[in-house]
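Have a close read of the entry that follows and walk me through the local backbone shapes. See right below:
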Amino acid sequence: MLIDMHAHTSGISWCCRAPAPKILEDAKKVGIDGIILTNHFLDTYLRDGMTPADLAQKYVNEYYYTRQCGEEMGMKVFFGVEVTMQRHADEHVLVYGVDPDFVLQNPELYHMTLRELSDTVHAAGGYLAQAHPLRSGRNVLMDPALLDGVEVNSHQLYDGPQYEVLSAYARTHGLTLTSGGDYHADASRPLCGVHLPDGLADSGEIFRYLQTAAEIDLQLQEDHDGPRSRVVFRKEEG
């Protein structure tokens, strides 16, 4: 199965231009079998008297709604979080391997330092991967000692996935390489993600598989019209 490990819906992520059914339909049309729903999580979404607990509940409700939509159209939907690190220049970190209750129990993840987030996520059995660290000319790589992975991203306005640079970085620091599209319905839908065995039950099982596999089978798309490429990341060179 091909799973896009970074996707959004407009029900939470304000910058996303399409609701859950359209997001899933677009993914299915290009040949993606499922997504990890990693909506944005940040305190600027606290409007009109909303508390952090209210936002956390809304966040979880959107996941369950999207998963139901996926069940109706034969698309897999797994749970994840994209945390805006407000104490680290608003860099984005993807959280995998936690369940929705994790957000309800930790409604202010965006106020943590990277070390605090790393400790909290790992204590819950989860994993952290930095999202799109080289997008659009940026070059901000966070402390790899506090991360489990780094993402190559096929969003078509991000100057390419930067696969060569990030695969070397992941190999050097012992990080898992993930792949996602960060799809917001603001460009054409890329064909991207990770090719995985069927039967993985949640984003934690997906990440553990990627951690233990000697090779990671990635799907990338460079720009609007291609090329689409399938590459194998080998954790040991040679």
